[in-house]
Amino acid sequence: MLQSKLFTKTIKEAPKDEMSFNAQALIRAGFIDKLAAGIYSFLPLGLRVLDKISRVIREEMDAIGGEEILMPVLIPKENWAKTGRWETLDVLFKLKGEDEKEYALGATHEEVITPLCRKFLFSYRDLPIMPYQIQIKFRNELRAKAGIMRGREFLMKDMYSFHADQADLDRFYEVAKQAYFKIFERLGLGGITYLTYASGSSFSKYSHEFQTICAAGEDTIFICDNCRMAVNKEIIKDQEQCPICGNKKFREEKAVEVGNIFKLANKYSQPFGLEYVNDKGEKKEVAMGCYGIGPSRVMGTVVEICHDERGIVWPKEIAPFKVHLLLLSNKSSWENNKKEADKLYQKMREQGIEVLYDEREEKGAGEKFSEADLIGCPIRIVVSDKTLAEGSAEVKKRNSADSKLVKIDNLVKELTQS
Ligand code: ATP
Ligand code: MG
């Protein structure tokens, strides 16, 4: 992409009413825009990152048998009333339709997916199934001061699984857990994201959160370094020791919940009468699980963790572009240098290398360098009078201070191998 064509710009000052670091950094670098507390637009650079996060999640959900769907955002009151959540789910945004019919905007989708599956699940042969969606959720969050880590509207991947019995739910739950570890590893949060025991429901003693260590996080977790698990402080009261190994030494950390998985058993299948016929011809209730991840919260979390004083340092797999190509030049050599940089840009694109090309003539070197640091692509390549004198370009990784000259002829090959 040509940077001159990007309609958004980096900006000097983040809005004064924006308290959170992630939103400040993302607004300054031109990734997002704030409309109101907890409500943000994703701009071209920001949407690329969000889409890449979603892509990683989608790949791992598909790999364990997930089938992607898209459910409505407007959910009639009667669906919520069936489970009692019209009254009890305090974050619901409620509204009235033209015929005085009441709706709530989707804050979670058990009340849609369960009656939906009732139309397709009849026999044990139809099970298990694992539909999921990636969609904007709406929650009237009391505190929306954490930038895109806590939005009033935010992206969520929510998968729901349907099983013939508890044993099959237990089996798939472990499969989903492993898929979540893979996802956080690929998103650049491996090693600092802990499977965390949190309060469960009436159906299981615990639910499992995936908590990423992060100073800006709103949760406190106690980590057992022995088995690399954690316990959420909210349930530690009756949890004096690690639920896995019995170790009593915990390490306390601030953390953010990036994912949450739940065994729902018959909590929703019962009110919606979701049953199937087993191989003996008996009617049975379907056992359910649910599995959430917030791609927009993940994006905010990555920014909180992966940055330095000059800007964001994106992990490879979710960077908006792999390469940021900067063209620098004296006035007199502009035409020639631009020709060389254009050729390089073209060659990189032909090789499928994602590149943001700063070919703006009116911007000086200092500004281009500081914008590149702010935006945070993993590799910066500079073509200038100095580098071209050696038939080279300068290559520098965003997460390292060292740079090196690489012959232009070898550059693309080197990049495709890195
Ligand atoms: P929290 O305790 O932080 O309010 P939650 O437990 O209510 O979150 P879930 O219902 O488990 O959230 O949602 C699944 C996932 O969706 C969370 O793990 C998180 O990644 C994301 N998420 C939840 N609420 C928000 C929000 N307000 N903004 C951004 N992401 C969110
Ligand atoms: Mg949760």
List keywords for this structure.
5-stranded mixed barrel, 12 helices, 2 domains, alpha+beta, BirA Bifunctional Protein, domain 2, Rossmann fold, 5-stranded mixed sheet, 23 strands, 418 residues, 29% strand, binds magnesium ion, binds adenosine-5'-triphosphate
Could you outline the blueprint of secondary structure elements for this entry?
Blueprint: H1 21-28, E1 32-36, E2 39-42, H2 44-63, E3 67-68, E4 74-76, H3 77-83, H4 85-88, E5 94-96, E6 102-105, H5 110-118, E7 131-138, E8 153-163, H6 166-189, E9 193-199, E10 206-213, E11 219-224, E12 229-232, H7 233-236, E13 251-265, E14 275-277, E15 283-285, E16 287-293, H8 295-305, E17 307-308, E18 311-312, E19 323-327, H9 334-350, E20 355-358, H10 365-375, E21 379-383, H11 385-388, E22 392-397, E23 403-407, H12 408-417
Parallel strand pairs: 3-7, 9-12, 19-20, 19-21
Antiparallel strand pairs: 1-2, 4-6, 5-6, 7-8, 8-16, 9-10, 10-13, 11-12, 11-13, 13-16, 14-15, 17-18, 21-22, 22-23
The structure holds adenosine-5'-triphosphate and magnesium ion (MG).
Protein model, in words:
By secondary structure, the chain is an alpha+beta fold. The chain has 2 domains: 3-71 and 109-308, 2-Layer Sandwich (BirA Bifunctional Protein, domain 2), CATH 3.30.930.10; 323-417, Rossmann fold (3-Layer(aba) Sandwich). It is built from 12 helices and 23 strands. It has helices at residues 21-28, 44-63, 77-83, 85-88, 110-118, 166-189, 233-236, 295-305, 334-350, 365-375, 385-388, 408-417, and strands at residues 32-36, 39-42, 67-68, 74-76, 94-96, 102-105, 131-138, 153-163, 193-199, 206-213, 219-224, 229-232, 251-265, 275-277, 283-285, 287-293, 307-308, 311-312, 323-327, 355-358, 379-383, 392-397, 403-407. The strands form 6 sheets. The chain has a 5-stranded mixed barrel with strand order 9-10-13-11-12. Strands 20-19-21-22-23 form a 5-stranded mixed beta sheet, sandwiched between helices. A 3-stranded antiparallel beta sheet has the order 4-6-5. Helix 1 crosses helix 8 (295-305), helix 2 (44-63) packs antiparallel against helix 6 and helix 2 packs across helix 8 (295-305). The two termini are 21 Å apart. Adenosine-5'-triphosphate binds next to strand 8, strand 13, strand 16 and helix 8. Magnesium ion (MG) is lined by residues 209, 257, 260.
